[in-house]
Amino acid sequence: MASPALEALLFDVDGTLAETERDGHRIAFNEAFREAGLDWDWSVEQYGKLLSTTGGKERIHRFVFENNINLASENDLERAVADLHASKTRHYMALVKGTGIPLRPGVVRLVREARGAGLRLAIVTTTTPANVDALMQNSELADYKDLFEVIAAGDIVPNKKPAGDIYQFAMDKMNLQASQCLAIEDSEPGLASARDAGIRSVLITLSDYTLEHNFKEASRVVKSLGDAASDMHIDVDALTKMHTEAWSSTDA
Ligand code: XBP
Ligand code: MG
Hints:
Layout: E1 8-11, H1 21-35, H2 44-50, H3 56-66, H4 77-98, H5 107-116, E2 120-125, H6 129-137, H7 144-147, E3 150-153, H8 165-174, E4 181-185, H9 188-196, E5 201-205, E6 220-222, H10 236-248
Parallel strand pairs: 1-2, 1-4, 2-3, 4-5, 5-6
Helix pairs in contact: 1-4, 3-4, 4-6
Bound molecules: xylulose-1,5-bisphosphate and magnesium ion.
The site of magnesium ion has 7 residues, from loops.
């Protein structure tokens, strides 16, 4: 049976489109904590551990629980965390609009090449939608809403990555089957999420915090998408081949 044709690329954001975690989200969390008069300060190493919990609000809840912090009464905790997270999002957006966070090597090239080749694109991320907009509006892909058909982000689904909900949401919106999609991710939860949604072709671009993650189930793992000038770069042809192999091997 012929392998299904590749129709769409589904891009993760944090760690994939841009290195946003260490010098972006982490800084924004610490600025929000300071603004709230809290003496919490997530170091690079501590944040790396907390990243195994996806979702900023979920990450704060985990920190509060693990450190037995009495942030608010039981009834008010949800609200207190939500307020803290809203402040963090404001700080993150200001940071991105201010100093800016560059898109990773090869992202602009591949997005434009994929659109030129007639592939459909979506963004599939755990982060808050406003963060995606701030990042993209201040990048070389400011026209991203013309390029990506669906922006599947944050609380739009009940279960965040590693659950497959957010990938399934994007595919449902685009009326696509998993066999028509290839996911581009940077982390174990991201890979697990794509696989949970039935996607077999997953390209991993390693990011600051995910060098030691387990990517056994990935189709391929690279340091980055690479710029055409570099000898190793990922293009539409390479992705098409990856997709065909992923769907032709019986043990996928
Ligand atoms: C990464 C995440 C997000 C960000 C922080 O998302 O897990 O929670 O760390 O963003 P992805 P929020 O790799 O799927 O893009 O604070 O808005 O959740
Ligand atoms: Mg990611």
